Amino acid sequence: MQRPLALAALLVGALTLSGLALGQTLRYFSWETNIADETAALIAEFEALNPGVTVDFEALPPDQYWPRMSAMAAANNLPDVFYMSSGFITEWHQNGLLANLQPYVDQLDLDDYFTGALSVARFPDPDVGNLHAVPINWVGPVLYYNATAFDEAGLAYPSAEWSWDEFLEAAKALTIDKTGNGRIDQYGYWVYGRYAQVEPWIYMNGGRLLNEARTRVEPNDAAIETLAFLSDLVNLHGVAPRPQEMEGIRQQDVFPLGIAAMWVDGSWNISNNRSIIGDQFTWDIALIPTGPSTTDRIGYTWPDMLAVGANSQHQDLAWAFVEFMTGPSRGASSFLGGTVPFYRPTAESEAWLERDQQPASKHVILELGQLPSRTSFTPNWSEWRGYAAAEGGGMNGELDQVFNGRKALDAAIASFVAYGNQVLSRSYPQP
């Protein structure tokens, strides 16, 4: 049952209800325009539970949200509560814009939440630092596989115990010239340089792209081993197409169109898969295989979060609203496809698991959420990572050059490390 504001305030030693809430107004900004009506209904419920409280709500699409928020931050006029991105939180924390929510979170029963998703919002240490935002939901990469193709090849489905060698053998068996014309009709796998396709393999091999402080691009041996493995899938074993061969096809459509039998990407792609695949073939998901350099699984998950402005005059009230919006009050209908509620009972409900739809193993995503989690988010993350770049100018593009056979891996690594550290030096000047 949702705790009324009065009890939430008592738990953190705050004011009484009358002193805390009566006549107070919270400003709340979101980028989820698609569920604005549902959000308004939740706000009305919160206001009814806490008479005298008013929540002024505004939802803007992302392309308008961030310019507006940046302008408000510059004017020292941030909302009390607002959506925060995993990709921007480091910079916003660094600029002193986010309240420390750790004293409030200490009062929660964290067994009811996916705590792995919290690491993105902890500073300075992702394991033990103070928390500066609370997830609403989270997503993470999984291994999608075409179960029909596996059945036709007589292969066992991917399992949590799969090794890289077993993955490779399956990818070879699934790479097929069905018509005998010398051209591959179905590849075993699909990969290109995008973060969601590369970094989860690195973490599942005990690798990292950044130094421990996340101030420099500094891939360790396990990360380099992982990049070599992915490169070999294309350039040595031929079980994945070159990215240039898929020009004109959206990367998220390669798997659902049946061009590749396996693919790693974010859990959010479940909705797109359902839309394109329909009943053409059976598909499912599994965890990404653990690499040879580790025995411990490290997840790669990132949340959408709620933050409280550092200068909010109503921080106790703001926290009560954050707790309400991230807890049991929000039903499974708010979380589409593979977007996972932060509140575990909602994620474990039949309404979220959707057992009457593909994938049959949607619960695998929840297993990912119970693993320790790491990310590579930094200030200017999208720039050094080269998000959405076709070639050059960041890690994404450099790896695509490798996958397209135009550049050696060691040269590409040297290039994206140098470029990445040039980008990061603007936020973390080197001695």
Account of the protein in words:
The protein is α+β, with helices and mostly antiparallel strands. It folds into two domains: 5-139 and 302-369, Periplasmic binding protein-like II (D-Maltodextrin-Binding Protein, domain 2), CATH 3.40.190.10; 141-298 and 380-424, D-Maltodextrin-Binding Protein, domain 2. It is 36% helix and 12% strand. It is built from 18 helices and eleven strands. The strands form three sheets. The protein has a six-stranded mixed β-sheet, sandwiched between helices. Strand 4 and strand 5 form a beta hairpin. Helix 9 (195-203) packs across helix 10 and helix 17 runs antiparallel to helix 18. The radius of gyration is 23 Å and the shape is globular. Mean pLDDT is 91; it is low at 1-19.
